[in-house]
Inverse folding.
C-alpha cells in the first residue's frame, strides 16, 4: 500500500497506528480508490504487552486507521476500550485497515493463545454398590467455572445434584469436568471410571443363642443377652418374650420383670432381604414370691411381726 513507507519499525514488538481522513479519491472522476488518502493525519506506536495498552484519541478528522503489528496481538476499538484475550486477532506482520469514529481509541494486548484453565484438584468418583447414590469429589480450577458430565456405560445421564442413584451391578460410570475461564479458555479433566458393585446378599444367621439370666421369682428382673447376628444387608432383629403357652409377654431387647410364675423364654428373630431365621433362648422358671407367716406384715418393703419379734422369711 502507498503508505507502507511511513510505518515506524521499532526494535521492540510494537503495533503502529496510522490515521487517515478517508479513502483516496480519483480527481477526474471522483471515484473512491482502494487505499487511504495521503498524507496520513497522525501516527502512533504502542508497545505490545501482557496487559491492555490504550492509544491516544484519534484525530477528529480520522475515519480510517491502518494497523501494522510486528507480532500477533488482539485489538479493540471504542471510547475507552480494553483489549482482552478474546479480542480481534491481528497476526504477526499483518497490516489491516479499519473504519473508526473520530476521537475513538485503540486498545491492544499480546495475542497469546487463550489461557487454558489449570486444574489444581481433579474430580473423584466414589465407589458404590447398585442402587446406592454415586457421589464425587468436585474438581477445582482457579478463576474458572466447572461443569460436570456423567456417563453411564458411555451414555450421558442427567444429573444436577452432585449424585446419581439409578444404577445396577456392572454399570460403568465416567465423570468429565469441564473448566471455562474468563478468557474463554477451556480444559477437561476425567475422573477415573468406576464399576458399580453387585450387592451380594446373605440370609441372617444367629450364631449364638440368646441367654436369659436372673429373675428367679415374680417381681425380679430377667436380663437378656441377645445372640450374635450376621447377614447382608444388615438384618432387622426383634425379640419375643413368651410364657409356656406361647403367649407374648414383652418385646424388650434387654430385660423383663415377670408378674406371674411359670416358664419364660425368648425367641430372637432376624430378617433381611435374603431371608429370615429365629433362635430360642434357654428357659427360666419363675417361682412365686414367698408367703409371709400369720401375724407378719410387709410394709413398703419392710417385714414386721405384729408382736415386735423378728421374723425369718424363707
Amino acid at each position: 500500500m502507498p503508505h507502507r513507507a511511513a510505518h515506524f519499525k521499532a526494535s521492540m514488538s510494537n503495533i503502529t497506528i496510522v490515521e487517515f481522513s478517508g479513502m483516496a479519491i480519483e480527481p477526474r472522476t471522483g471515484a473512491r480508490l482502494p487505499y487511504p488518502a495521503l498524507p496520513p493525519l497522525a501516527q502512533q506506536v504502542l508497545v505490545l504487552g501482557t496487559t491492555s495498552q490504550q492509544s491516544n484519541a484519534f484525530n477528529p478528522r480520522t475515519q480510517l486507521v491502518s494497523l501494522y503489528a510486528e507480532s500477533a496481538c488482539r485489538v479493540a476499538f471504542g471510547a475507552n476500550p480494553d483489549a482482552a484475550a478474546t479480542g480481534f486477532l491481528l497476526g504477526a506482520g499483518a497490516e489491516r485497515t479499519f473504519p473508526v469514529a473520530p476521537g475513538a481509541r485503540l486498545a491492544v494486548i499480546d495475542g497469546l493463545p487463550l489461557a487454558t484453565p489449570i486444574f489444581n484438584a481433579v474430580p473423584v468418583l466414589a465407589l458404590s454398590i447398585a442402587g446406592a447414590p454415586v457421589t464425587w469429589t468436585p474438581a477445582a480450577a482457579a478463576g474458572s467455572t466447572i461443569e460436570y458430565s456423567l456417563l453411564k456405560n458411555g451414555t450421558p445421564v442427567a444429573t444436577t445434584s452432585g449424585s446419581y442413584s439409578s444404577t445396577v451391578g456392572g454399570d460403568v460410570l465416567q465423570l468429565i469436568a469441564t473448566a471455562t475461564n474468563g478468557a474463554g479458555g477451556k480444559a477437561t479433566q476425567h475422573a477415573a471410571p468406576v464399576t458399580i458393585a453387585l450387592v451380594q446378599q446373605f440370609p441372617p444367621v444367629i450364631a449364638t443363642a440368646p441367654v436369659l439370666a436372673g429373675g428367679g421369682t415374680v417381681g425380679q428382673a430377667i436380663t437378656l443377652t441377645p445372640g450374635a447376628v450376621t447377614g447382608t444387608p444388615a438384618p432387622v432383629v426383634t425379640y419375643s418374650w413368651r410364657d409356656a403357652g406361647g403367649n407374648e409377654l414383652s418385646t424388650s431387647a434387654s430385660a423383663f420383670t415377670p408378674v406371674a410364675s411359670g416358664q419364660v423364654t425368648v425367641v430372637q428373630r432376624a430378617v433381611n432381604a435374603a431371608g429370615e431365621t429365629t433362635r430360642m433362648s434357654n428357659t427360666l422358671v419363675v417361682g412365686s414370691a414367698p408367703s409371709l407367716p400369720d401375724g407378719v406384715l410387709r410394709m413398703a418393703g419392710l417385714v414386721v411381726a405384729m408382736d415386735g419379734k423378728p421374723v425369718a422369711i424363707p
